[in-house]
Amino acid sequence: MTEVVYRLYETVDELTTVIENARSVPMSSSCMVPRDHLLDLLDDLRENLPEEVQQAGAIVEQRAEILQQAQAEAERLTGRTRSESEQVVVAARRQREELVGTARRQRDEILTQAQAQADELLASAEEEAEELLAEGRRLRDQLVRDGQEQRAELIAAGQAEHERLLTETEVYRTAVDRADELGAQTVAEVARMRAEVDDYVDSRLADFGNTLAHMARSVEKARDNLRSP
């Protein structure tokens, strides 16, 4: 394989050299090359082409056949895919219907259970409400009886207190009258005692004045005696 590639490169290089060294055609960009020599080089190049390149050429020639086979395979795969997709769709629909049916049955069961529980709770609530109402009525009646008894007791206590206050009022009035009487007696007694005290003090002052006058006369007499020779 390496020798073939090397030979190809040599042939290409030789073609390049021939073209580069060819004589130019005056007044143009063309050149004159030896035809036989170039044809020999091209034949040599064609003969030394690798097998892969030849196979590629064969593949290019068989392109139409390959495309037809690919188209047929694609159509076969497409038909198979469609069939499988239809089967998948049918299975999905069947599974969906089964799931919907199961969900509906579960929903109906849940609703039935919920309704039963609601009925039980409602019945229990009604029983509890009746018991609470009965208990409330009993408590109300008991409170009414207790209130009536307390009212009767309060009325009796009020009447007793009223009578006691009336009695105490009479006693108070009697005490006030007695106090007024005692006050009047006390005022009279105080006036009498003050008069007696005033009389006693006056008499004592008179006696003391007489004593002082007697003493003054005695003093004057003693002074006179002292002054006489």
TrEMBL record:
It comes from the Bacteria. Keywords: Coiled coil. Residues 60-87, 111-142 form a coiled coil. This is Cell division initiation protein. It comes from Modestobacter caceresii. The lineage of its organism: Bacteria, Bacillati, Actinomycetota, Actinomycetes, Geodermatophilales.
